[in-house]
Amino acid sequence: MPQPTSRDTRLFTVTADTLVAVDFTRRAPREPGPYRRLFEVPGSRAFTAGNLLARLPMGMFALSAIVMIAGNRGSYALAGAVTATGLAATAVVAPWTARLVDRHGQARVALPATLIAVLGSLALVLCVRLDAPAWTLFAAYAATATTPNTGGMSRARWAHLLKGRPDALHTANSFEQAADELCFMLGPVLAAVLCGTFFPEAGTLTGAVLLLTGVALFTAQRSTEPPAVRRAAGRAPLRAPGIRPLLLVCLATGGVFGSMEVVTIAFADGQGHRTAAGAVLAFQAAGSCVAGLLYGAVRLSGPAWARLLWCLAAMAALMTLPLLAAALTGSLLVLAGALLVAGMATAPTMVTTMTLVQRHTPEGRLNEGMTLAVTGLLGGIACGSAAGGWVVEHVSATAGYGVPVAAALTAFTVAGTLLSFGASNRSRDHRTHH
Question: How is 326-342 classified by DSSP, letter by letter?
């Protein structure tokens, strides 16, 4: 008589003429989803947890500094100038920090760089509390520019662990973009609660503790760390084919983010609900977060440059919704819904952009390449903020929503032009036809 196997159970009955076996076969186990498979990679959960803890303060520091400085010195102009100086310093210092990370390893560079940044935050708190001269605030906040690109380091680990697995890497990049959106959605809310509930310095101090703790936990996971490349082959990322066009796209895309923030704050203020601006903007981040997770679960095909063009076209189209909501209704509630939908184009655009940056960056210099992309975004955010503020001041807050539409159209035009002319020697993008 055959023996029952591990995969099925057999019920044997005896009839008058023969032995009848009835099979009760188990259902095949359901195949795990893409995100479950992603975090089955050894060590992935540990470094992701530390990185998320380190990334949360990225959305806290600017708002905390503005509240702290404006509350103590009574000048939003000074607070804005200090944070702008920190943004400019980061744009200069961050690529050099990333280059050191590539050459000497994440653990050896990221932790000391974080310590310097944390000391800068503590110095800023002391200067504010002790009524030190204004120039000391600029110097202290500029020191925080050594903060390593934690999101870039996490993406570099995924690229190392998932080498040769483009579908899995797409899922990882989508998760990372969703994590960025979540942190920038929760960070300002946490900072506002801390500064308002306890004392003005609470947001900066908490952010410094979270950053240092998160980076320490992240860099302690040595088994998943990409190997350092002392002398990377190939040219610098900025000179690599395809990188400069992508930086132009990042610059224009950053203009969407920067202008949207300033214009929404001004619009909410004009409606008499300035404190609601953060919650309204959170809807945009929430839409992007959800879209990023869904995008990561989709199996893609075709050239990545073509996908980027479609994503930018969707962004340009959806960015008209906040403009229409503000112009036709003037309702913050309707505006929040429009931002929720408009934000759904953000994460797919950024995921595709970062995928192209990874493919065009010379091997061994991935952190530097992705940090250049972030620097382009920061530059665009600064330009978008200035343009949005000018339109709000000289025209109206409603008209200001035309700035993110114009920025999105600019990004689409740049990408479309580059795609038409071969996208500046996109030799590496042949890998996208999987």
Answer: HHHT--HHHHHHHHHHH
Indicate where the chain has its CATH 1.20.1250.20 domain(s): 31-231, 237-434
What contacts 248, CB < 8 A, 6 or more positions away? 376, 414
Instruction: Indicate the SS3 state at residue 12.
Output: strand
pLDDT, tens digit, for every residue of 1-55? 444 444 444 444 444 444 444 444 455 556 678 888 888 899 999 999 999 999 9
Q: What is the fold of 31-231? A: Growth Hormone; Chain: A; (1.20.1250)
Whether residue 278 contacts residue 189, with contact meaning beta carbons closer than 8 Å, is answered with: yes
Alpha helices for 277-345 (secondary structure H):
277-296, 304-318, 320-328, 332-342
What is the DSSP secondary structure assignment for residue 298, as one 8-state letter? S
Q: What is the value of pTM for the model shown? A: 0.76
36-352-38 Cα angle (round to 5): 15
Contacts for 291 with CB less than 8 Å, ≥ 6 apart: 343, 344, 345, 346, 347, 348
